[in-house]
Amino acid sequence: MTLTQLEYLLAVDTYRHFATAAEHCFVTQPTLSMQLQKLEDELGVQLFDRSRVPVRPTELGKDVIEQARVTVSEFKKIQEIVQAQRTGITGELRIGVIPTLAPYLIPLFITDFIQKYPKVHVVVQELVTDSIIEKLRLEMLDVGLLVTPLQEKTIVEIPLFYEAFVGYLHPKHPLFSEQEITPGSIDNEDLWLMNEGHCFRSQVLQICNRTKPPKNVHLDYESGSLETLKRIVETQSGMTLLPELSVMDLPEDKKLLVRPFTDPAPLREVSLVVHKSFLKKRMIEALRETILAHIPTDLKTRNPVRVVKIK
User: Fold this and answer.
1) Among residues 115, 188, 236, 270, which one has the fewest Cβ atoms lying within 10 Å of its Cβ?
2) Per the database record, which ranges form the HTH lysR-type domain (predicted)?
3) CATH class of the domain at 87-153+279-301
4) What is d(CA 78, CA 19) in angstroms, rounded to the nearest whole number?
């Protein structure tokens, strides 16, 4: 059994296609297939069900692959320690960020991070939570920025700050005259939501004590963009809930549409997340420190008494 064979094994698990895996490993498909066959012969087990398209690991293969990821990761940590000593913080950092966070958080810190660490190439992808978790598992991302807590035993969560939910109301909405709102005061029938797949949608429904989305009489519109939800409220009617960072830089006339919740306001926990066997520790710690340096103080020091869970 060799490290190269384990890397080929992980590549096939990641891409579920021998030719694609070989391409990413910079070898020919026959070479990759031969090495995997040698590994299976040595172990005396079949690791992949080749009769299926795309290929899938066997039940025993899943266990072997999980351990192979740990083994390869630990080997790479040795290389990482030596490289960091020689060159400092350098390399590629692949970040996955949920769409309800990316447009408001990334601009706060990314310029400073790039200037501080010019030898780091940053790649940012906007993805929903499930995709970030899967890509972390497959080592296609190094770190995620998303909302926690999660129910994922393979994920390590590093909480960064607590962001309040706020209401965003049309000027003719009945609650517009109020200085603050409560979950019980929200009429669910005029509430605009994110579409399925976004954890923010689940949290909003929980705040409003609903299991199903509202049904508008004239228009049903579920969006994947908070900015679109703002425009729907402004031009149509009703209200939506938004995360705090998304309203901080609004023009003054739009800030008039924002209403905070009464204390204790519902919060979402924003965390930096990594796979349990994550690499690039110094780089990720540098990312954490840079983010915290640019977050408003009250978000970092807030008492998380009412964190809305993700279901």
Assistant:
1) 115
2) 1-58
3) alpha beta
4) 29
CA atoms of 199 and 128, how far apart (whole Å): 8
- Do you know the residue count of the chain? 311
Q: How far apart are CA 20 and CA 53, in angstroms?
A: 13
Q: Are strands 267-275 and 222-223 parallel, antiparallel or unpaired?
A: unpaired
**CATH (one of 3.40.50.150, 3.30.1360.70, 3.40.47.10, 1.10.10.10) for 3-84:** 1.10.10.10
Read off the pLDDT of residues 171-187 as tens digits, 9 standing for 90 and up: 999 999 999 999 888 87
Domain range annotation of the chain? 3-84, 87-153+279-301
